[in-house]
Design a protein that fits this description.
Elements (H helix, E strand, L loop, with lengths): L5 H11 L8 H18 L3 H18 L2 H13 L2 H12 L16 E10 L6 E9 L4 E8 L5 E7 L2 H13 L4 E4 L2 H12 L15 H10 L2
Antiparallel strand pairs: 1-2, 1-5, 2-3, 3-4
Helix pairs in contact: 1-3, 1-4, 2-4, 3-4, 3-5, 4-5, 7-8
Protein backbone atom coordinates (compact mmCIF):
# COMPACT_ATOMS: atom_id res chain seq x y z
CA UNK A 1 0.00 0.00 0.00
CA UNK A 2 2.97 2.32 0.60
CA UNK A 3 5.56 1.37 -2.06
CA UNK A 4 7.82 4.22 -0.99
CA UNK A 5 8.56 2.29 2.20
CA UNK A 6 9.66 -0.94 0.52
CA UNK A 7 13.29 -0.30 1.49
CA UNK A 8 12.25 0.20 5.12
CA UNK A 9 10.28 -3.04 5.21
CA UNK A 10 13.19 -4.90 3.58
CA UNK A 11 15.56 -3.51 6.21
CA UNK A 12 13.24 -4.66 9.00
CA UNK A 13 13.08 -8.15 7.51
CA UNK A 14 16.89 -8.30 7.35
CA UNK A 15 17.27 -7.02 10.93
CA UNK A 16 14.68 -9.50 12.19
CA UNK A 17 17.00 -12.37 11.30
CA UNK A 18 18.86 -11.63 14.56
CA UNK A 19 15.69 -11.42 16.64
CA UNK A 20 15.52 -15.11 17.75
CA UNK A 21 19.00 -14.79 19.25
CA UNK A 22 17.92 -12.13 21.75
CA UNK A 23 18.05 -13.44 25.33
CA UNK A 24 14.38 -13.14 26.27
CA UNK A 25 10.91 -11.80 25.59
CA UNK A 26 11.54 -8.37 27.12
CA UNK A 27 14.43 -7.70 24.75
CA UNK A 28 12.32 -8.89 21.81
CA UNK A 29 9.42 -6.65 22.87
CA UNK A 30 11.72 -3.65 23.21
CA UNK A 31 13.23 -4.35 19.77
CA UNK A 32 9.79 -4.61 18.22
CA UNK A 33 8.54 -1.49 19.99
CA UNK A 34 11.45 0.54 18.61
CA UNK A 35 10.64 -0.50 15.01
CA UNK A 36 6.97 0.29 15.50
CA UNK A 37 7.95 3.64 16.96
CA UNK A 38 9.94 4.45 13.83
CA UNK A 39 6.93 3.68 11.66
CA UNK A 40 4.47 5.62 13.78
CA UNK A 41 6.69 8.68 14.13
CA UNK A 42 7.01 8.87 10.34
CA UNK A 43 3.33 8.26 9.59
CA UNK A 44 1.46 11.41 8.55
CA UNK A 45 -1.86 10.15 9.96
CA UNK A 46 -3.61 7.11 11.43
CA UNK A 47 -4.50 5.70 8.01
CA UNK A 48 -0.86 5.84 6.97
CA UNK A 49 0.18 4.11 10.18
CA UNK A 50 -2.29 1.26 9.57
CA UNK A 51 -1.16 0.92 5.96
CA UNK A 52 2.51 0.71 6.97
CA UNK A 53 1.70 -1.91 9.58
CA UNK A 54 -0.22 -3.99 7.03
CA UNK A 55 2.63 -3.75 4.55
CA UNK A 56 5.15 -4.82 7.18
CA UNK A 57 3.08 -7.87 8.14
CA UNK A 58 2.79 -8.83 4.46
CA UNK A 59 6.56 -8.53 3.94
CA UNK A 60 7.37 -10.59 7.03
CA UNK A 61 4.93 -13.29 5.98
CA UNK A 62 6.46 -13.37 2.50
CA UNK A 63 9.96 -13.77 3.92
CA UNK A 64 8.89 -16.64 6.16
CA UNK A 65 12.14 -17.02 8.09
CA UNK A 66 12.58 -17.62 11.84
CA UNK A 67 13.24 -13.92 12.43
CA UNK A 68 10.13 -12.91 10.56
CA UNK A 69 8.07 -15.43 12.53
CA UNK A 70 9.44 -13.99 15.79
CA UNK A 71 8.69 -10.44 14.62
CA UNK A 72 5.14 -11.42 13.70
CA UNK A 73 4.60 -13.07 17.09
CA UNK A 74 5.87 -9.94 18.81
CA UNK A 75 3.54 -7.78 16.71
CA UNK A 76 0.65 -10.07 17.63
CA UNK A 77 1.56 -9.73 21.32
CA UNK A 78 2.34 -6.03 21.80
CA UNK A 79 1.68 -4.33 18.46
CA UNK A 80 -1.19 -1.98 17.63
CA UNK A 81 -4.57 -3.58 18.24
CA UNK A 82 -5.61 -3.22 14.59
CA UNK A 83 -2.74 -5.44 13.43
CA UNK A 84 -2.48 -8.09 16.11
CA UNK A 85 -4.91 -10.58 14.61
CA UNK A 86 -3.37 -10.33 11.13
CA UNK A 87 0.14 -10.73 12.55
CA UNK A 88 -0.96 -13.76 14.58
CA UNK A 89 -2.58 -15.40 11.55
CA UNK A 90 0.53 -14.77 9.46
CA UNK A 91 2.71 -16.35 12.14
CA UNK A 92 0.37 -19.34 12.37
CA UNK A 93 0.95 -19.97 8.68
CA UNK A 94 4.67 -20.31 9.46
CA UNK A 95 4.05 -23.22 11.80
CA UNK A 96 6.89 -25.31 10.32
CA UNK A 97 9.42 -22.50 10.88
CA UNK A 98 11.45 -22.81 14.11
CA UNK A 99 10.11 -20.68 16.96
CA UNK A 100 12.24 -18.44 19.14
CA UNK A 101 12.71 -20.02 22.60
CA UNK A 102 10.81 -17.19 24.29
CA UNK A 103 7.97 -16.93 21.76
CA UNK A 104 5.19 -18.14 24.06
CA UNK A 105 6.15 -15.58 26.74
CA UNK A 106 5.72 -12.52 24.51
CA UNK A 107 3.26 -10.10 26.06
CA UNK A 108 2.60 -12.44 28.98
CA UNK A 109 3.37 -10.34 32.06
CA UNK A 110 1.98 -9.95 35.55
CA UNK A 111 1.74 -6.63 37.31
CA UNK A 112 3.87 -5.80 40.33
CA UNK A 113 3.98 -2.68 42.52
CA UNK A 114 3.13 0.75 41.13
CA UNK A 115 4.83 3.91 42.39
CA UNK A 116 4.32 7.64 42.02
CA UNK A 117 7.41 9.86 42.04
CA UNK A 118 6.91 13.61 42.30
CA UNK A 119 9.84 15.99 41.96
CA UNK A 120 7.96 19.28 42.08
CA UNK A 121 4.75 20.99 40.95
CA UNK A 122 6.26 22.05 37.62
CA UNK A 123 7.81 18.67 36.80
CA UNK A 124 4.64 16.60 36.61
CA UNK A 125 4.41 13.02 37.86
CA UNK A 126 6.53 9.98 37.12
CA UNK A 127 4.64 6.69 37.20
CA UNK A 128 6.70 3.55 37.80
CA UNK A 129 4.87 0.30 37.03
CA UNK A 130 6.63 -2.99 37.67
CA UNK A 131 5.96 -6.12 35.59
CA UNK A 132 7.41 -9.59 35.31
CA UNK A 133 7.51 -12.30 32.67
CA UNK A 134 7.35 -15.81 34.01
CA UNK A 135 10.70 -17.13 35.22
CA UNK A 136 12.25 -13.67 34.87
CA UNK A 137 13.18 -10.77 37.09
CA UNK A 138 11.13 -7.58 37.26
CA UNK A 139 11.23 -4.77 34.77
CA UNK A 140 9.46 -1.44 34.92
CA UNK A 141 7.76 1.07 32.72
CA UNK A 142 8.65 4.61 33.81
CA UNK A 143 6.49 7.32 32.27
CA UNK A 144 6.85 10.99 33.10
CA UNK A 145 3.70 13.00 32.56
CA UNK A 146 3.47 16.76 32.23
CA UNK A 147 1.28 18.69 34.70
CA UNK A 148 -1.40 18.53 32.01
CA UNK A 149 -1.14 14.74 31.74
CA UNK A 150 0.74 14.46 28.44
CA UNK A 151 3.67 12.01 28.13
CA UNK A 152 7.08 13.65 28.33
CA UNK A 153 9.34 10.60 28.68
CA UNK A 154 8.88 6.84 28.42
CA UNK A 155 11.67 4.59 29.67
CA UNK A 156 11.86 0.80 29.92
CA UNK A 157 13.87 -0.07 33.04
CA UNK A 158 15.60 -3.41 33.33
CA UNK A 159 17.23 -2.90 36.75
CA UNK A 160 14.25 -2.10 38.96
CA UNK A 161 16.09 -2.40 42.33
CA UNK A 162 18.67 0.14 41.17
CA UNK A 163 15.94 2.50 39.98
CA UNK A 164 14.05 2.37 43.26
CA UNK A 165 17.25 2.68 45.30
CA UNK A 166 18.12 5.86 43.41
CA UNK A 167 14.58 7.18 43.89
CA UNK A 168 14.68 6.56 47.63
CA UNK A 169 18.10 8.18 47.88
CA UNK A 170 16.69 11.25 46.12
CA UNK A 171 13.74 11.20 48.51
CA UNK A 172 16.07 11.19 51.51
CA UNK A 173 17.81 14.20 49.99
CA UNK A 174 14.35 15.84 49.75
CA UNK A 175 14.58 16.03 45.96
CA UNK A 176 11.35 14.09 45.39
CA UNK A 177 8.62 12.07 47.04
CA UNK A 178 8.05 8.35 46.41
CA UNK A 179 4.80 6.66 47.35
CA UNK A 180 2.76 3.59 46.39
CA UNK A 181 0.13 4.37 43.78
CA UNK A 182 -3.19 2.77 42.91
CA UNK A 183 -2.82 0.60 39.79
CA UNK A 184 -6.34 1.56 38.68
CA UNK A 185 -5.46 5.26 38.72
CA UNK A 186 -2.15 4.63 36.96
CA UNK A 187 -3.89 2.60 34.27
CA UNK A 188 -6.48 5.29 33.64
CA UNK A 189 -3.86 8.02 33.39
CA UNK A 190 -1.50 6.08 31.17
CA UNK A 191 -4.14 4.86 28.74
CA UNK A 192 -5.41 8.43 28.35
CA UNK A 193 -1.90 9.80 27.85
CA UNK A 194 -0.70 7.15 25.38
CA UNK A 195 -3.70 6.86 23.07
CA UNK A 196 -2.83 7.32 19.37
CA UNK A 197 -5.32 10.15 18.90
CA UNK A 198 -4.13 12.25 21.83
CA UNK A 199 -4.66 16.02 21.77
CA UNK A 200 -0.93 16.80 21.82
CA UNK A 201 1.87 15.57 19.52
CA UNK A 202 3.89 12.74 21.00
CA UNK A 203 7.47 13.78 21.86
CA UNK A 204 9.97 12.14 19.53
CA UNK A 205 11.86 10.56 22.43
CA UNK A 206 8.74 8.63 23.49
CA UNK A 207 8.32 6.64 20.27
CA UNK A 208 10.85 3.80 20.80
CA UNK A 209 9.05 2.50 23.90
CA UNK A 210 5.55 3.64 22.93
CA UNK A 211 4.11 0.33 21.68
CA UNK A 212 5.46 -1.50 24.71
CA UNK A 213 4.10 1.21 27.02
CA UNK A 214 0.64 0.92 25.48
CA UNK A 215 0.70 -2.83 25.99
CA UNK A 216 1.72 -2.52 29.62
CA UNK A 217 -0.86 0.22 30.22
CA UNK A 218 -3.52 -2.20 28.95
CA UNK A 219 -2.38 -4.76 31.55
CA UNK A 220 -3.11 -2.28 34.35
CA UNK A 221 -6.63 -2.52 35.79
Amino acid sequence: MLPGLRAVYAAYVREAAALPSLPGPLEAEAWTSARLGDLESAAPHAQGRRAALGDLITCLAADGGPGSRAFLRALAAIGPAEGRRAAGRAADRLGDVPAAPWESALGQVVLGPVWLIQEGPLDGDRLICEFRHRDAGPHALAVRLSPGGAPVEIVLVGDVPALMAAARQAMRAELCTVQPYAPETAGHRLRAALRPDGPEPMPTACYPALALARHRAAVLP
